[in-house]
Design goal:
Elements: E1 11-22, E2 28-36, E3 42-48, E4 59-61, H1 63-75
Length: about 80
């Protein structure tokens, strides 16, 4: 447990898929496959510091959820 009473989050980036947006600060919004706290790896979209030691809040998706997102985008009429 950290000093402020929070529990430390453990993560392992299993696969770096790509950068969605690069910011002038050096942080990047990325799509990765990440295992959080020893659970199965999931697709993950969030901002990461250059050293990948710090991150923002983000969105994690199970593989079936990611497939659904892709289908929705493909079916979308622009």
């Amino acid at each position: 447990m950290l000093e402020n009473g929070r529990t430390e989050i453990e993560f392992e980036i299993k696969e770096k898929i790509g950068v969605i947006k690069a910011y002038p600060t050096g942080w990047n919004k990325e799509l990765n496959v990440v295992a959080w706290n020893g659970t199965a790896a999931k697709y993950d979209i969030r901002d990461w510091s250059p050293d990948h030691e710090h991150m923002s809040r983000g969105v994690t998706l199970h593989p079936d959820e990611m497939r659904k997102v892709l289908r929705l985008l493909e079916e979308r009429e622009v």
